[in-house]
Amino acid sequence: MKNVLGTNLEICNLNPITGFTRNGCCETGPQDIGQHTVCAEVTQEFLQFSKMQGNDLMTPRPEFEFKGLKAGDRWCLCASRWLEALEEGVAPPVILEATHEKALDVINLAELKYHQLR
């Protein structure tokens, strides 16, 4: 698997464990309708935005073994949600090495590079 830079896809996060398949990587496949391909370090602004869009990532959901996210956690986000957040001025910083190349189907590389974690 490749990242947006064309090199091997790196792990996004193992604590909390992320990814559509919960293996720590932002890989994708046919079952991943939301395309969870963008590895981002979430901010409080993004978490509030996501909650307002109907996806509360902060509240623990023990039935899904989900502890809830806090600012500073790395998480595989849906490419379209990250793009929506960008349009609203609340896009969280991206870890390019852990962002799957499929994210480029939705987001252009220049935007991802501009918002890369520094």
Model description:
- With 118 residues, the chain is an alpha+beta fold.
- The protein is 20% helix and 9% strand.
- It has a two-stranded antiparallel sheet with strand order 1-2.
- The mean pLDDT is 96.
Provide mean pLDDT, rounded.
96
Strand content: 5-15%
- Read across the widest sheet, the strand sequence of neighbours is 1-2
Summed up, the helix count is: 3
- State the low-pLDDT regions, or none: none
What is the helix content? 10-25%
First and last CA, distance: 24 Å
Sheet having the most strands: 2 strands, antiparallel
Task: Give the tally of β-strands.
Answer: 2
Output the radius of gyration.
13 Å
Order of helices and strands: EHEHH
Q: Give the overall silhouette.
A: globular
